[in-house]
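Chain A, query sequence.
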Amino acid sequence: MMRLASSVVHNFSSSKQKFFFLFGAPGVGKGTYAKLLRKDLGYNHVSTGDEIRKILKGTIGSGFDKDLIEKIRGIVKSGGLVSDEVVAQIIKEKVKEPESAKGVILDGFPRTQGQLDQYLKLFPIHGVLNITLRNDVLL
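Chain A, predicted structure.
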């Protein structure tokens, strides 16, 4: 289980931005709830897995860091896993987008303690929602 640091460094994002985490098992509806929250709150919905897929397909926004795009493509092409530091860089890029001005809904992130550690160096946490569903329904 991940533990949150007692003090959160807030040195990169606008103080008006809010950051919310959505957690839950695959298939529980994180993406669906994120879309609803995006509509209701006007926050950007960020799924790092979706962003990596956009990078690989060449459909990522033109403002995205070109060096980071090439780094991710190289890692995936070689069969490697994207590191926690690179995942945090993806979040950092997404937070800069105009759609993120009010806030960001992070869908299924962080997945590791390392990702959380990288995230906490950059941004605060304003809320966490853990979505659950009965195991018999998930299966």
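The radius of gyration is 15 Å. Residues 1-14 have pLDDT under 50 and may be disordered.
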